[in-house]
């Protein structure tokens, strides 16, 4: 059994003149939660559609749990549960009927359906609303229902395309808690897209996509350390130290005898800290946020 639940290698896709994916490679180890983070139009849904076999990429290779998507699409598709960006519930039907339709469509054996639906209602926290029309559910409840429905046929991978769109800040975090809890309890692998940077703190690994390219990947901490350069604040201990700092960092800004230094790569703020620690009366690092790290990676440079 392969250790990778999802694998994309060199995936390319264009819609006419618009290139949506450029040489995208991404690995998601089994049992982990991966976030695909990028601004509008970055290519997130296009990659999701390729993984779901809705779209056939122009080039590249895709595997789900070691099964080649191009060669054995049926087998690969059964291994994934998908929640698309656009809601696909039939809001006129009851919660239970929405689940039953999916059971029939995915060939869940008749004898197993009742138990599968009861479990899905439990997973969604909607057992008390089973017979209400889906139209009467809140946006967060609808998302939980779609997630539970996607798991009805027992997939090992759950793919969610911007599941938190339309939810308020508290409900967004609650939904991530719900998803990471499910992943842990059911030994699922999750790939979840979003354009909200602070949400990806819940993911094991973050793949940042911009203009169809993966521009960075790592854990939230790694991304912060690598791309959120932060600044060094330092008050030299005497005039000689101040002169040395001024000579080494002509771009530093000074206020009340305190310098603010922005490291220029490959220098890191930690390296600067060690370099100047002995020359300083006060010295501290102000870490950048994940938000600023990701913005720096994804802004178009216009
Ligand atoms: N069916 C289509 N026909 C033409 N162009 C498309 C089509 N679908 C997507 N695109 C284009 O491909 C690029 C990537 O779109 P995609 O929907 O994958 O981005 P996204 O990251 O999911 O964005 P969003 O956050 O807005 O959902 C965009 O430039 C988009 O306009
Ligand atoms: Mg999208």
Per-chain topology:
Layout: E1 4-15, E2 18-29, E3 33-37, H1 44-51, E4 59-64, E5 67-68, H2 73-78, E6 80-83, H3 95-105, H4 110-124, H5 139-150, E7 157-161, H6 169-186, E8 189-194, E9 205-210, E10 213-218, H7 220-227, E11 231-236, H8 239-248, E12 253-255, E13 258-261, H9 269-276, E14 280-286, H10 290-298
Parallel strand pairs: 3-8, 3-9, 6-7, 7-8
Antiparallel strand pairs: 1-2, 1-4, 4-5, 9-10, 11-13, 11-14, 12-13
Helix pairs in contact: 3-4, 3-5, 4-5, 5-6, 7-10
The structure holds adenosine-5'-triphosphate (ATP) and magnesium ion.
The site of magnesium ion has 5 residues, from helix 1.
Short recap of the structure:
By secondary structure, this protein is an alpha/beta fold.
Which distinct ligands sit in these coordinates?
adenosine-5'-triphosphate, magnesium ion
Q: In CATH terms, what is the fold-level topology of the largest domain? A: Rossmann fold
Oligomer: single chain
The SSE string, one letter per element, is: EEEHEEHEHHHEHEEEHEHEEHEH
Number of helices, counting only DSSP H or I runs of 4 residues or more: 10
CATH architecture of the largest domain: 3-Layer(aba) Sandwich
Average pLDDT number: 92
* Number of separate strands: 14
Q: What value does the Rg take, in angstroms?
A: 24 Å
CATH class of the largest domain: Alpha Beta
Note the beta-strand portion. Answer: 25-35%
Q: Using the alpha-carbon principal axes, give the shape.
A: elongated
Total of domains: 2
- Low-confidence parts: none
Bin the helical content.
25-40%
């Amino acid at each position: 059994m392969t250790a990778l639940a999802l694998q994309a290698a060199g995936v390319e896709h264009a819609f006419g003149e618009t290139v949506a994916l450029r040489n995208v490679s991404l690995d998601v180890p089994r049992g982990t939660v991966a976030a695909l983070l990028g601004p509008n139009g970055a290519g997130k849904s296009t990659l999701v559609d390729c993984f779901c076999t809705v779209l056939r990429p122009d080039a590249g290779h895709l595997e789900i749990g070691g099964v080649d998507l191009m060669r054995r699409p049926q087998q690969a598709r059964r291994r994934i549960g998908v929640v698309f960006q656009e809601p696909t519930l039939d809001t006129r039907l009851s919660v239970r009927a929405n689940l039953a339709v999916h059971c029939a469509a995915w060939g869940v054996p008749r004898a197993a359906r009742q138990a599968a639906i009861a479990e899905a209602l439990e997973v969604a926290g909607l057992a008390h609303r089973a017979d209400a029309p889906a139209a009467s559910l809140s946006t967060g409840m609808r998302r939980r229902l779609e997630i539970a429905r996607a798991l009805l046929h027992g997939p090992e991978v759950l793919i969610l395309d911007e599941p938190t769109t339309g939810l308020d800040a508290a409900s967004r975090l609650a939904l991530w808690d719900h998803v990471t809890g499910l992943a842990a309890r059911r030994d699922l692998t999750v790939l979840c897209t979003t354009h909200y940077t602070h949400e990806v703190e819940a993911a094991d690994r973050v793949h940042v996509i911009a203009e169809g390219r993966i521009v960075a990947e790592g854990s939230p901490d790694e991304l912060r350390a690598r791309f959120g350069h932060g600044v060094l604040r330092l008050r030299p201990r005497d005039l000689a130290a101040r002169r040395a700092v001024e000579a080494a960092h002509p771009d530093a800004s000074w206020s009340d005898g305190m310098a603010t230094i922005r490291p220029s790569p490959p220098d890191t703020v930690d390296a600067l800290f060690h370099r100047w620690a002995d020359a300083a009366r006060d010295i501290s690092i102000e870490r950048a946020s994940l938000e600023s790290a990701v913005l720096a990676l994804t802004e178009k440079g216009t």
